[in-house]
Design a protein that fits this description.
- The two termini are 23 Å apart.
- The strands form nine sheets. The chain has a seven-stranded mixed β-sheet with strand order 5-4-17-16-18-19-20, with helices on both faces.
- By secondary structure, it is α/β, with parallel strands linked by helices.
- 32% of the residues lie in helices and 23% in strands.
- Helix 5 (84-93) crosses helix 7, helix 5 (84-93) runs parallel beside helix 12 (317-329) and helix 11 crosses helix 12 (317-329).
- The longest helix is centred in the first third of the chain and has 17 residues, at 117-133.
- Bound molecules: 5'-O-[(S)-butoxy(hydroxy)phosphoryl]adenosine.
- 5'-O-[(S)-butoxy(hydroxy)phosphoryl]adenosine is lined by residues 271, 317-318, 393-396, 418-423, 444, 510-512, 524, 526-527, 533, 538.
C-alpha cells in the first residue's frame, strides 16, 4: 500500500535538518527565525499581511482597511487597487529583469522557447487587446482550455490584465466536463489550441471545444480564440472561431493594466466535491497576489538566479499559483514543460533539469513513484547538480518515496518541501521553509506564518498529540477562496458547517484527516469526505457515479477508491445493470470509456465490478465503507447492524 498508514507514520522518527550551508544563504535561515515570524503573524495577522502587501506588491491605490471578516466571508485590502498582471510583468520592466527569462518552455517534441519579461509583457498586452476586440470587457468570464504552452500563461495574464476572470479547464477534461464548467461560468470567450503533445500523441483540444459548444449548448460563448500548436486539420466555425496567429501581428502591444479592486474576482477554478457537480472556487485579486507571492518566495527561498520548475499543469491550482502568478510576481524564471514522462523517454524530466540547470523542482508523489519504477539509471545518468530545493504536493507522500527523492534526486543535500494546500486555500498552508524547518519524511511539517491550523474533533475541540482529527484553519488568510461561484450556500455548508464555531471563532474545514505529533508537526492522512485523490488529482465519487448512471445499461453505481502503487488511489466502481443488460467484458470496457468521455482520462475506473445489489442502510444509503474494504481486498470492518440486506455482502464477498 502506497499511502502512509497511521502505524507507519507513528514509526517515522527520522529528522532531516537543512545543511548549515543552505541555511546560511536562506532568506529564513533558522527555526527561530521562522518561529519569530510565526509569532508575529499570529499575534496580529492583519498587521503582518499589511506590511508585506506594502513591501512586496505595487498598488495603484492603497487599501483603507486590511481585513473585513464577516464569517464566512472575508475581504482583504478593502478599496485597494491593484492588477496582478502588472505585478507579474510591468513592474519588472523598469529593472534589469526586463531581459531576464520569465518563461522557459520546453515542448514535448523537443521544440523550445524562452520569453523574457519584456517579450512576455508584449504578448500578454497583444492578447489582451485581441480579447477586447472580441468583445471581452471587465467582469466577463473567459474559458481557457489549453495544452502546456506559453500561450496558456499568456491567456491567463491577458485576462487578468483587463479584469476578465478566467476559468481554466484542465486540457485532460472531456468535452462534457468542459461544457459543464463553461455553462456554470457563463463564459463569453474560450481560448484554446488546435491540440497539444502528450506522451508522443496529439491531444485534440479544439474538437472538444466544438463538441462542448455544439447546437449552441453554451449560449454565453460568442467567440473562440484558437492558438496553433500541432497544426493538424481542425474545423473553424465562421463568425465564431478566430486564429491567434492571424490576429496577433496586428494587435497593439500597448494595453495598460486595468486597476482592479482588491476584491474583484481574478478567477474561477472548478474542483471536485462531494456532489456530482464541481464547485467553482472563486479567488480574488489582492489577497491572492500577496499570498502566492510571499509563499512562493519563502517556501522556495527564491533567488534571482533560480531556474524554477513546477511540473503541474496550468489547469490545476498548482499551475495557477506556482507556475504563473507566484513565480512571475517575484520576477523569477518559471519553466514550463509540455510533456510527461513516457516509455519513449523515461528520462525526459532529468534531461530538462540538465538542459536548463533547474535549481528548484516541484512535483507530486505519484510522479516520484513513477520515477522509482522507471529505474535509477535515468536520473543517475544526468547531471542534476544544479538542484538545490525539491518540492512535493498533491497527496500524502509515503516515506519510501520521500527517501528516494532525497537520495536519488536531491543528492541528500536538497531540502524537501512537502506543501499541503488546496484549490480553496490558493497557496501553501502547511510547509517547511527550506532553510529553517527540519523535515520528517511524510510530514508537511508546520503552518506557514499567518496560518493558524489545528486538528480538532467534530465539536471543534483540539485533539491530543498524535490523535487523529480534522484539519481546520482558524483565521482567514489573504488567498482563501471567497465563495463558490454563484453559490454562497454551498460555500457555507461545505467548509463552515461540518464543525461549529468554537469560542466564537469560525473554523475552515479542509476535508482532510490529519494528526499533529509531539513536535507540532502535521501529518495529513487524506480526505475524510467522498473525494478521491487519483494521481494527485481530485475527483468526487459522485462525479464518477453520475457519469456511470448516465449510461443506458447502468441502473446504479457506487464508486470508491482503492490503494494503487503509483497513482496513490485508483477508481473502483460497483455497478448494477438495468434489467435487460447482461454483464460482459465488452460492457465493462464500454463503461470505462463512457466515464472517460463524460469526465476525462483521469477518471477511468481501474476496475468495474458488476453486482446484483449494493450494500445499503435501511434508509437506502450506500455503505461505501464496506465497498472500500472489498475493493482493497481487506476484511470488512465496522458495524453491519444498520444493513438492510445482509446477503448482499455475502454475494459481494463471493464474487
Ligand atoms: C487535496 C487538495 C493544492 C495542490 C494540489 C491539490 C491533498 C494536497 C498535500 C500534501 C497530503 C495533500 C489533500 C487536499 N493534498 N497536498 N502535501 N500532503 N495531502 O489541490 O486538487 O485542491 O486537492 O489534496 O487531500 O485536501 P486540490
Amino acid at each position: 500500500m502506497s499511502q502512509p498508514t497511521i502505524e507507519s507514520i507513528l514509526q517515522e522518527k527520522r529528522l532531516f535538518a537543512p545543511t548549515p550551508e543552505f541555511s546560511q544563504q536562506a532568506t529564513i535561515g533558522s527555526l527561530e527565525a521562522y518561529q519569530q515570524l510565526y509569532e508575529q503573524a499570529a499575534t496580529d495577522p492583519a498587521a503582518f499581511w499589511a506590511e508585506l502587501a506594502d513591501k512586496e506588491l505595487d498598488w495603484f491605490q492603497k487599501w483603507d482597511q486590511v481585513l473585513d471578516w464577516q464569517p464566512p466571508f472575508a475581504k482583504w485590502f478593502i478599496n485597494g487597487k491593484i492588477n496582478i498582471s502588472y505585478n507579474c510583468l510591468d513592474r519588472h520592466l523598469t529593472t534589469w529583469r526586463k531581459n531576464k527569462a520569465a518563461l522557459i518552455w520546453e515542448g514535448e517534441p523537443g521544440d523550445s522557447r524562452t520569453l523574457t519579461y519584456a517579450q512576455l509583457h508584449r504578448e500578454v498586452c497583444q492578447m489582451a487587446n485581441v480579447l477586447k476586440d472580441l468583445g471581452v470587457v471587465k467582469g466577463d468570464r473567459v474559458g481557457i482550455y489549453m495544452p502546456m504552452i506559453p500561450e496558456a500563461a499568456i491567456a491567463m495574464l491577458a485576462c487578468a490584465r483587463i479584469g476578465a476572470p478566467h476559468s481554466v479547464v484542465f486540457g485532460g477534461f472531456s468535452a462534457e466536463a468542459l461544457k459543464a464548467r463553461l455553462l456554470d461560468a457563463e463564459a463569453k470567450v474560450v481560448i484554446t489550441a488546435d491540440g497539444g503533445f502528450r506522451k508522443d500523441k496529439i491531444v485534440p483540444l479544439k474538437p472538444a471545444v466544438d463538441e462542448a459548444l455544439k447546437d449552441n449548448a453554451v449560449p454565453s460563448v460568442q467567440k473562440v480564440l484558437v492558438v496553433q500548436r500541432t497544426e493538424q486539420e481542425i474545423e473553424m466555425v465562421s463568425d465564431r472561431d478566430v486564429w491567434w496567429h492571424e490576429l496577433q501581428p496586428n494587435a497593439s502591444a500597448n494595453c495598460p493594466a486595468e486597476p482592479m479592486d482588491s476584491e474583484d474576482m481574478l478567477f474561477i477554478l472548478y474542483t471536485s466535491g462531494t456532489t456530482g457537480q464541481p464547485k467553482g472556487v472563486v479567488h480574488t485579486t489582492g489577497g491572492y497576489n500577496l499570498y502566492t507571492h510571499v509563499t512562493c518566495k519563502w517556501t522556495f527561498d527564491l533567488k534571482e538566479t533560480d531556474v524554477y520548475w513546477c511540473t503541474a499543469d496550468v489547469g490545476w491550482i498548482t499551475g495557477h499559483s506556482y507556475i504563473v502568478y507566484g513565480p512571475l510576481s517575484n520576477g523569477a524564471t518559471s519553466l514550463m514543460y509540455e510533456g510527461a514522462p513516457r516509455a519513449s523517454n523515461p528520462g525526459c524530466f532529468w534531461d530538462v533539469v540538465e538542459k536548463y540547470g533547474v535549481t528548484i523542482f516541484y512535483t507530486a508523489p505519484t510522479a516520484i513513484r513513477a520515477f522509482i519504477k522507471m529505474g535509477d539509471q535515468h536520473p543517475n545518468s544526468r547531471d542534476l547538480s544544479s538542484l538545490r530545493i525539491l518540492g512535493t504536493v498533491g497527496e500524502p507522500i509515503n516515506p519510501e518515496a520521500w527517501i528516494w527523492y532525497h537520495k536519488t534526486i536531491g543528492n541528500e543535500t536538497c531540502p524537501i518541501v512537502d506543501t499541503w494546500w488546496q484549490t480553496e486555500t490558493g497557496g501553501f498552508m502547511l510547509t517547511p521553509l527550506p532553510g529553517a524547518t527540519p523535515t520528517k519524511p511524510g510530514s508537511a511539517t508546520l503552518p506557514f506564518p499567518g496560518i493558524l491550523a489545528d486538528i480538532v474533533d467534530l465539536e471543534g475541540n483540539p485533539v491530543a498529540a498524535n490523535e487523529g482529527g480534522y484539519l481546520v484553519v482558524k483565521h482567514p488568510w489573504p488567498s482563501m477562496m471567497r465563495t463558490v461561484y454563484k453559490n454562497d450556500e454551498r460555500f457555507r455548508n461545505t467548509y463552515w458547517e461540518h464543525i461549529p464555531p468554537k469560542d466564537g471563532e469560525y473554523l475552515y474545514f479542509a476535508g482532510d484527516g490529519a494528526r499533529k505529533d509531539e513536535d507540532g508537526y502535521f501529518w495529513v492522512m487524506g480526505r475524510v469526505d467522498d473525494v478521491m485523490n487519483i494521481s494527485g488529482h481530485r475527483l468526487g465519487t459522485m462525479e464518477v457515479e453520475s457519469a456511470l448512471v448516465s449510461h443506458p445499461a447502468v441502473a446504479e453505481a457506487a464508486v470508491v477508491s482503492r490503494p494503487h502503487e503509483v497513482k496513490g488511489e485508483d477508481v473502483y466502481a460497483f455497478v448494477t445493470l438495468e434489467g435487460t443488460h447482461a454483464s460482459s467484458d465488452e460492457l465493462k470496457a464500454e463503461l470505462k470509456q463512457h466515464v472517460v468521455s463524460e469526465i476525462g482520462a483521469i477518471a477511468r475506473p481501474g476496475e468495474i465490478r458488476f453486482t446484483d445489489a449494493l450494500p445499503k442502510t435501511r434508509s437506502g444509503k450506500i455503505i461505501r465503507r464496506f465497498l472500500r474494504n472489498l475493493a482493497a481486498g481487506e476484511e470488512l470492518v465496522g458495524d453491519i447492524s444498520t444493513m438492510e440486506d445482509l446477503t448482499v455482502l455475502d454475494k459481494l464477498r463471493e464474487g
